[in-house]
Amino acid sequence: MCEKKRQVDRVRTELLAHLREERIEPPARDRVRRIIGTALRQAEQTQTSRISSRIPAAATPRLLALIAKSADPGDEPEDQVTARCSAPRRPPTWTPAR
To answer: Is residue 26 within 8 Å of 16, Cβ to Cβ?
Structure first.
């Protein structure tokens, strides 16, 4: 459920409907909030693990280098940062795998 619907209200509605269907008394509001938060966090971690497991090992050093470079904006002159941030974004292009 959480993998498809990441909106708290929708997950809460589904959870309460499931509890009614099973004839289970719903927990207190704070407990429901914690259950939903945990479920959404676990779904996010699961999705991240699935995606990261599909990345080839050879790409990992390049990704880490890219992250390190983008994490330190102090290396770029101010005019390049401004130009990059204000430039219109192009749609991503698809490149077939080799």
So the answer is: yes
Contact 8, 36 (CB under 8 A): yes
Q: Which helix (H) or strand (E) holds 48?
A: helix 29-53
Q: Which secondary structure element, helix H or strand E, spans residue 11, and what is its range?
A: helix 8-21
Single pTM value for the model? 0.55
Tens digits of pLDDT across the chain (98 residues): 555 556 889 999 999 999 999 999 999 999 999 999 999 999 999 999 999 899 898 998 998 899 888 877 666 555 555 555 555 555 555 555 54
Do 3 and 41 form a contact (C-beta atoms < 8 A)?
no
Give, to the nearest 10 degrees, the angle between helix 29-53 and helix 8-21.
110
